[in-house]
Design brief:
The protein is mainly α. It has 23 helices and no strands. It has a single domain, classed as Amino acid/polyamine transporter I (Up-down Bundle).
């Protein structure tokens, strides 16, 4: 029997074509320091828990992410391979732990994609239609936006599923035709979205509570006002809840979630030119940009709207009583702070296309997990095939799309994932594993630690700080229902995700052992480029 070679082939087939700006754009796309990401802090926190100072929660979340960012930067330059933390965990701790972490992250990416992309139908399209309707004095467009997701439950599900899958398919198309076209499209979309974001932030920065109140009244011809919204909420039993430290601390995981994605250029490590320079932009500078834009934007929005109005608007929207008839994410009020229909339209269009840009980045990183698993033979090796024309793993892309379609269907048509899934908990567990690997690598795997910046001590320090920050986030995310599913069934679901990874690894290990290959020994080596 011929001995199975250590690696699937002598080269991955991936080409180092991505530059520093591609790495930066990818991380910014997935993190989303834009009008969408800024608005999402209100959109995700206020329907679940109020009384938090969202700006402070974002600042704390940002500082929690700094050690993780430094850890990812060092690992991505020390082991620049596609698959990112899957490779690092497996080579620094143990291959089975690498797959457990990588598998959990891959599933969490697709679970996040399936749930977050539904906002295109539930939030984005209605908000865009209403804001454009007011900007151009088109009552019919306002009404259409207010009723976009309406009708019988089966009709609503069909609208949401169709809109979500269409958006995902467009994103898949963006990543399927090679690095050059992907790069150009992502830069173009990013330019439009950031132009919209700068108008959005600028409008809110120059607004005051008084100008926002008068602008909102003028925008809606008196149909929606700040004082009436606050009074209506109070009379409905949703009086203003003052800001407290306890509520702010409970919102910190949302602050951490706000910056999730700044490090995702690490997952295309095998395709990035000059990793030290490119990943500096793709990870550390991306995090800095996210911090400035997100924190500034959140502060500006809530300073202009005021917390009493923001709380009241979301409370009424949750009860189906908000006078605008849509979920009150900040872009819907752009006419109140800018008031120029052309600028308002740029903001609306940037908001409309954000999810496609975001999903294209997230799907690209997910496919690199599939590719890395397959190149290491844990997944069927066919998914490591590289299309000779586009130099992209198209079979891995198809598999990722199929998983995304199934997860999207389950998300929309059932309540299973809402009762069981807590992606923040999954991420923090894996990030703690990364922190542990950062501590042990310089001492346990000295052959892989040669040339570490700062010698043998700097990476372990960052790893220790990562464990502290992510440990606190894990506690909050696993105990606060507003962040994600909690309880015995949710915990069992997470355990099952990790356990399935161990089973898959064991099956492949014994399969290849019968063919004369020690998979564990093979996966302790860095894969070829």
């Amino acid at each position: 029997m011929a001995k199975v070679p250590t690696f699937l082939r002598e080269a991955t087939g991936l080409v180092r074509t991505f530059s520093w700006y591609d790495a930066l754009i990818l991380s910014l796309a997935v993190t989303g320091p834009t009008l969408f990401g800024i608005s999402s802090q209100e959109g995700y926190v206020y329907p679940n828990g109020i009384g938090a100072d969202l700006t402070t929660a974002a600042v704390i979340g940002f500082f929690f992410m700094i050690p993780l960012g430094l850890t990812y930067y060092i690992f991505s330059t020390q082991m620049p391979r596609s698959g990112g933390d899957y490779i690092w965990l497996g080579r620094s701790l143990h291959p089975v732990l690498g797959f457990v972490g990588g598998w959990a992250m891959f599933l969490s990416f697709i679970l996040l994609l399936a749930s977050a992309m539904t906002t295109e139908a539930y939030v984005v399209i209605p908000n865009v239609a209403v804001s454009l309707g007011y900007a151009w004095t088109n009552p019919g467009l306002v009404t259409w936006g207010q009723n976009f997701v309406s009708g019988s439950p089966s009709s609503v599900n069909l609208i949401v599923f169709g809109t979500t899958m269409l958006s995902i398919l467009i994103s898949v198309a963006i990543i399927s035709f090679g690095p050059r076209l992907y790069s150009r499209i992502m830069i173009l979309l990013g330019a439009i979205i950031f132009l919209a974001t700068f108008i959005f932030i600028g409008g809110y920065l120059f607004a005051t509570p008084a100008s926002f109140a008068s602008g909102l009244s003028a925008m809606t011809s008196g149909g929606t006002t700040v004082n009436a919204t606050i009074s209506q909420a109070a009379s409905s039993g949703a009086a203003y809840v003052p800001i407290t430290w306890s509520a702010t601390l409970f919102a910190v995981p949302f602050g951490v979630l706000l910056f999730n994605g700044f490090n995702y250029s690490a997952y295309i490590g095998g395709e990035v030119k000059n990793p030290k320079r490119s990943q500096l932009w793709g990870i550390l500078i991306a995090l800095a940009i996210c911090g400035v834009l997100d924190i500034t934007g959140i502060y500006a929005v809530l300073r202009a709207q005021t917390y009493p109005f923001a709380q009241a608007a979301f409370a009424l929207a949750g009860a189906g009583k908000f006078s605008l008839g849509v979920t009150p994410w900040a872009p819907v009020f752009i006419g109140a702070v800018v008031g120029n229909p052309y600028l308002d339209s740029i903001v609306a269009f940037g908001f409309l296309i954000f999810n496609i840009w975001w999903a294209a980045g997230l799907l690209l990183t997910a496919t690199r997990y599939v590719f890395a698993f397959s190149f290491d033979r844990i997944f069927p090796t066919a998914f490591a095939d590289i299309n000779p024309r586009f130099h992209f793993p198209l079979k891995a892309t198809v598999l990722t799309l199929l998983v995304a379609a199934v997860f999207t269907y389950i998300t929309i048509y059932t309540s299973y994932f809402s009762q069981l899934v807590n992606t923040v908990t999954i991420w923090t567990i894996v990030w703690i594993m990364i922190g542990i690997s950062a501590i042990v690598l310089p001492f346990w795997k000295k052959n892989l630690a040669q040339g570490l910046p700062g010698g043998r001590l700097l990476l372990p320090v960052f790893g220790f700080l990562t464990i502290l920050g992510m440990g606190a986030t894990l506690y909050w995310s696993a105990t606060i229902p507003a962040i994600g599913a909690v309880g015995p069934f949710a915990s069992a679901f997470i355990v099952a995700i990790f356990a399935v990874a161990v089973v898959i690894y064991a099956v492949r290990y014994y399969y290849f052992k019968g063919k004369g290959l020690d998979l564990t020994a093979a996966l302790e080596e860095i894969p070829p480029e």
